[in-house]
Each structure stands twice: as structure tokens, then as C-alpha cells.
Amino acid sequence: MLHLAAGTDEGWGHWALEHMDAILLDHAHCEKKAASTALSMIFRYPGCPQLMMPMSALAREELEHFELVVGLIRRRGGEFVRQEPSPYAARLMAASRKHEPDRLLDILLCCSLIEARSCERMQLIAGALAERGAEAPGHDMHELFELYDGLLVSEARHHATYVELARGCVEIEEAALQQRLAELAAHEATVLEAAPRDQPRMHN
Ligand SMILES: [Fe+2]
Ligand SMILES: [Fe+2]
């Protein structure tokens, strides 16, 4: 269960396939950012021992994803280059409250929603690829299918990891946690709705 407040239109996956080079570049940046966010939690919250191992493992895994995506970009003749960061994550995180432990709770739940949205988008790309027959080995888009079909499972797990960490790191009743998750999910849907569509991104 991904806890998203609004689902993406089915057609998004096919639209993404028409802009795959741009989507892959953005995706590589997302994996890099996911690794950096996990690492930053270790620095920012040394007082939360429960965060250390899961965040370290997650940072490593996201870097592996980064390497997978950059490898594919290069095999397609492209290169991993700089790009203007998408406003999605910053706008989502802007809803985090300022004082601890609310702040930690909100950051973990926002991270869980980013993972959930990434998972949903990867599912749509893999679905669109499957509709084109890319599940078959030898298909010219088979490598893309394998990448997205493989990664979406990890991103679903990362979503669950962040929700679980919110439970473990912050003293909060389950109902209150669910309520805050629902509030932030509604905010995430609004941020996504308002995202600029001029460039193809994982989160627009
Ligand atoms: Fe990832
Ligand atoms: Fe992830």
C-alpha cells in the first residue's frame, strides 16, 4: 500500500516512454538525491540510533540504483549531466514542521511519499513497456523494462521502510501517524498537480 492521495493518469507511462532520455536523466538525479537524503539523516539525527543502519543501507541501495540508471543512459549513447533540480521534493518538504520531533516525523513521512510516487511512476513505465511487448527478451526496450520492473519493488519497500522508521523514531499514536501521513499525502498530490510540465520528469 503506497498511501498516495491521488493516482497518476494511466497515460503517463506512455508519455514518459516518448521522452525516455529526459526521464532517465531525471531518474538518475532522483536516485542520487535519494542516496544523499538517506545519508543526510545519519548526520542530522545522531540521537536516533534506529535510523543509522536502515539509512546507511538505503543510501547504498540508492547509489546502486544511480549506477544502474547512469549505466543505461551511457549504453543509450547519452551522459549523466547536470540539470535544474525539480521543485517537487523541496515543495513537498516545505510542509515539514519546524520543531522536533514533529520535524523528524514529517521528513520521514515526506520521504515515504517520494518513494511511493517514484514506485507508482515506475509501475506506469513498466506497464507501458509491457503493453509494447518489452517483457520479451530481445525486444529493443527489454533493458528498460527490466530496469523499471526491478526498481519499482525496491521503491515500494523504501516507502514502507520510511513509514516504519517514523513509527520507531517518534513517539506517536498510530491514528495520529496515519492522520499526518494522509495530510502530507494530500499536500504531495497538490504539489504534483502544480509541477511545471515543460520538461519530462519523474515527478511531473
Ligand atoms: Fe531508488
Ligand atoms: Fe528509493
From TrEMBL:
<dbReference type="InterPro" id="IPR010386">
    <property type="entry name" value="tRNA-Hydrxlase_MiaE"/>
</dbReference>
<dbReference type="GO" id="GO:0045301">
    <property type="term" value="F:tRNA 2-(methylsulfanyl)-N(6)-isopentenyladenosine(37) hydroxylase activity"/>
</dbReference>
<dbReference type="InterPro" id="IPR012347">
    <property type="entry name" value="Ferritin-like"/>
</dbReference>
<dbReference type="Pfam" id="PF06175">
    <property type="entry name" value="MiaE"/>
</dbReference>
<dbReference type="GO" id="GO:0006400">
    <property type="term" value="P:tRNA modification"/>
</dbReference>
<protein>
    <submittedName>
        <fullName>tRNA-(MS[2]IO[6]A)-hydroxylase MiaE</fullName>
    </submittedName>
</protein>
<dbReference type="InterPro" id="IPR009078">
    <property type="entry name" value="Ferritin-like_SF"/>
</dbReference>
